[in-house]
Amino acid sequence: MKSYVIAVVVALMTVSVSAQELKPTVELRQEYLMTLEVMMDIPQLVGARRVVNVSGGTLRGPKINGTLVAPSGDWLYNMPDGSSRLDVRLMIKTDDNELIFMEYGGVMAFPKNAAERLNKGEVVTHLDGYFMVAPRFNTASTKYAWLNQVQAVGKMVSLQRGHTIKYDIFEMK
Asked: Which residue of 22, 100, 110, 171 lies most exposed, with the fewest beta carbons within 10 A?
């Protein structure tokens, strides 16, 4: 019994020392890529899934500007804890007539009071909850081919259900 207790104490000390020594070996940097504003229709409920038609929108950034065109949509899955998982696919037509496919997953979680405000049609902001996305891009355009090599991260700026959502999107480096 005594050796068992000693083994447990040594194991716990090793875990706590190892946890203190864990540090990242790389650094993440970000560069502002764009602000994306998405116009949405009212969601259609299909079980735990909310299907949202994207009816338009814009993106503006230092190296890219454009509008969202059809087909574009969002397939949200409602999790048992009240959060949602996003599955978004957007078609972008740039101001110089190039096509770019953008897709992202993400997590949306609001406390009960913010979710109630959102369901009433009120605007919620990044201060009201957690809403992060991870966009990727695909294009055959030579001008925008650099986007094929970008992993982006976005954070919701504001959201009004059935109207618009606005994100700031950053290229991760």
From this structure: 22
